Amino acid sequence: MPFHDKAEVLAEILKEYPQVEVVQIQFNYLDYEDPAIESRKCYEVYCKYNKPVIVMEPVKGGSLVNLPEEAKKVLEDLHGGSPTSYAIRFAAGFPGIEMVLSRMSNLEQMKDNESVKKPVHSICKSENF
């Protein structure tokens, strides 16, 4: 079930329909605390209801790849990979994230995305929240 609303609405849905098996959310480091998107709060609801999460928009439509020069330099100085890899690793780095969906438009982007490997976490444990 793709979800585009507030965490409070998500909690109501999951309470009313416990048979929902997995939920898809917009989740990236730019939207994590954004009050309009509530990525963190929605993620916490999934964990409370022990639901696995599929992430959409880990690079926020490319805006976390095409960074301003100052931000790009900060990441380059860390020598930890491309801006894409940082965004995908952020999204994939939370317990309960089962899959990260990322749009690619050329072979170079596909290779960059494919280079980000990590084991899948188990379902969230609600006692963490």
Give a description of the structure.
The structure is a single chain. This protein is α/β, with parallel strands linked by helices and about 130 residues long. It has one domain (about 5-115): TIM Barrel (Alpha-Beta Barrel). Helices cover about 35% and strands about 10% of the residues. It has 5 helices and 3 strands; from the N terminus they run αβαβααβα. The chain has helices at about 5-15, 40-50, 70-80, 85-90, 105-115; strands spanning about 25, 55, 95-100. The chain has a 3-stranded parallel sheet with strand order 1-2-3, covered by helices on one side. Helix 2 links the parallel strand 1 (about 25) and strand 2. Helix 1 runs parallel beside helix 2 (about 40-50). The longest helix has 10 residues, at about 5-15. The protein starts with 6 loop residues before the first helix and ends in a 15-residue tail after the last helix. Residues about 120-129 have low confidence and may be disordered.
Label this structure with key terms.
elongated, 5 helices, alpha/beta, 9% strand, TIM Barrel, 129 residues, three-stranded parallel sheet
Query: Which CATH first-tier class would you pick?
Result: Alpha Beta
Shape: elongated
Total helical segments: 5
Uncertain residue ranges: 119-129
CATH architecture: Alpha-Beta Barrel
The side-by-side strand order for the widest beta sheet comes to 1-2-3
Q: What share of residues is helical?
A: 25-40%
Based on CA atoms alone, the radius of gyration comes out at 15 Å
Q: What is the fourth-level CATH superfamily? A: NADP-dependent oxidoreductase domain
Strand content: 5-15%
How many angstroms does the end-to-end distance come to?
23 Å
Could you describe the largest sheet, including whether it forms a barrel? 3 strands, parallel
- Helix/strand/pairing category: alpha/beta
Number of domains: 1
The number of distinct β-strands equals 3
The overall pLDDT average reads 83
- Determine the CATH topology: TIM Barrel
